Protein 1
Amino acid sequence: KLFFTDYGNTAKVERCDMDGMNRTWIVDSKIEQPTALALDLVNKYVYWVDIYLDSVEVVDYQGRKRHTVIKGRQIRHLCGLAVFENYLYTVNSDNLSILRINRYNGTDVQSLARLDNAKEIRVYQKRTQTAVRSHACEVDPYGMPGGCSHICLLSSNYKARTCRCRTGFILGSDGRSCK
């Protein structure tokens, strides 16, 4: 799945399949300017920062179990968000500090460091990605990802795929080759 935020005409948090199909709103009320977003892949939760409401909130992948992790002046101007173990990590763009927030109670907020020009944060750890033995976009014997001549996108699950073409090309009737 692909998760993203939008605060155009209607502010929302959405999800869709990796090929853009099955687009679903998971949050569309009591939300103003959702920006940074982070996923808890193990427990299937979506965290986001709302810079207008000065809040960090969480919801499950279906849009249920929503609650506010933390709200208020101490978390103004947040950009970037990452989740790892019991904490959320974010950047305060006002003073360029890295903050650590307890994601279960929101009361334990610590400034860890300052970094010049920091706007985003990521946690890289092996356990944050589940291993998949094989998937539909694996390279075939001819060197084509998923048998697609240009771009292979996972679809509704790791066993399904959709082929797409680069700009200026059209997908052929076989659903794999680009012309």
Note: The mean pLDDT is 89.
Protein 2
Amino acid sequence: LPYVPHVSPMALLGKVTATTFALESPLCVFDGHADASDAVWLAVAFANASAAFRNPPSRADVPRYQGLPTAHSYMTLETAAGAYSCSAPSPAVLRVGGDTACRDQGRQDPCNGPLPSPGPYRVKFLLMGCRGPKAETRWSEPILLRRAVSPSTIVPVPARRGSAVVVMVSILASLGAVLATAVLGALG
């Protein structure tokens, strides 16, 4: 399918963080291709490994989150295809990497765990039926996560203020005190 997934253009807090990003939902993308029993999956891969990704032939072969460090890809966010139809009330964004409970290595269900490095990552949506893949979108452009700042680079002492700032703050504070005195005098 010609659709290319992308980070949501909406102004969102935490649109891209050090471990997650918010994708725009693929609304109306699979209409005409999906049956009621089909599911839409999100494939997540390191950008340099996306070309090597192969669609799994069945749900049992879906690459898991726990295999990301070695396989360089996984699939997550399994959703009924009908949830993305034009007529369905769907969420505007999908948070990739938002499930911190995925760190439990014993979980076998498709997991949406925190992304382990800044990436970059590429994603695509895959429509799967009971007999395997039916349709897929194109890969996204590379998505680079934010990098955490090293604590050693944070300066704990605020920068010195210039004398002009000190004079301005003093004048404003004095005017505030005069105004407060005048208001109290008028009320008294």
Note: The first strand starts at residue 21 and ends at 24.
Protein 3
Amino acid sequence: PNGVSLSFNGGKDCVVLLHLFAAVYYKHFQDSVDIPNIQAVYITHPNPFLEVEEFVKECVDRYGLDLITIKGPMKSALAKYLEQRPNVQAILVGTRRIDPHGENLLEFVPTDPGWPPFMRIHPIIDWHYSQVWEFLRILNIQYCVLYDLGYTSLGSIDNTYPNPDLRNPSQPSGYDPAWKLADESKERCGREKSTSSSTSN
């Protein structure tokens, strides 16, 4: 268990991944007296949403996370994380095909040369947007409140806003909830495109 960690940022995909991993993890330890907390790393954006920060804290308590929070950029943050957790050999990531740089990823991919060395594992790489929300809603899994306000993909306050495809003046927030988005290709329409390559790995 100390060789595996989880990348967690409070987003919907990470919540699905965390829930699945926690189910397997705690079943594995069901006959144990002492259950180690799930190792996780949270690499933060500049100017994160307060709602995201609060939700991450809730998940630490709900799922029993040994969470280390480190400011980005990604490459240096991962190096710092492995300095603190040198036994970690693999990190589970909630990336899906529709995400930037996700189209050609395999389920198991070592990090690129020059990056901190570990195995990247993508258990939900082939999940669709609708499947993510079906999973969360049918199992009544708690998620960040921003998704109920029209946000469909979460970054920082500087580059994220409600998805214009969910605009609905009849709603108190002015937007339908994220799960009502019908076209998954529009999932990131509430995100400004980044010019940075710091997260490309």
Note: The first helix runs from residue 12 to 28.
